[in-house]
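Quick note —
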Amino acid sequence: MKIVAAALFAAVMPLAPVFASAVEVKVQADTGFDAILSGLNVEAQTDFAGFVGKLSARFGQAQDKVEAVIKSVDKPADAYMALKVAETVNKPVDEVVKEYTANKDKGWGQIARNLGIKPGSKEFHALKKSDLSGKGKGKGQGQEKGKGKKKGKGKG
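Predicted structure written out below.
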């Protein structure tokens, strides 16, 4: 039994760096998203009226509605996320705020799933990108992938 355990340990140990690097990549991705949200919070603290104006213009909401959303969530970045999720799922922001209130301890990923955004979808990944500069699509966004001619796939 000790020999089997030792052999198993010896076989698994070389894989430890692989698992560690996978965890590191996830942490880095979340760190980038957290940095975006932190930046939005700083922007709101520095220039609240400007932040409200940006959200209003970006999401086509009245400024008083945006202010009401900001007051109903924990942080200004959460208001941005509520507006972005509402836009993505084509639902009223009040419905998203209601879901946020019930599930904020589970995070925005779960809130998005509850509202119909599938994990791994382009919509899900788009939630992690700030686009407060305007409604236009960023580089590489909004392009549909065609079927193409399957070059390089081989026959049969």
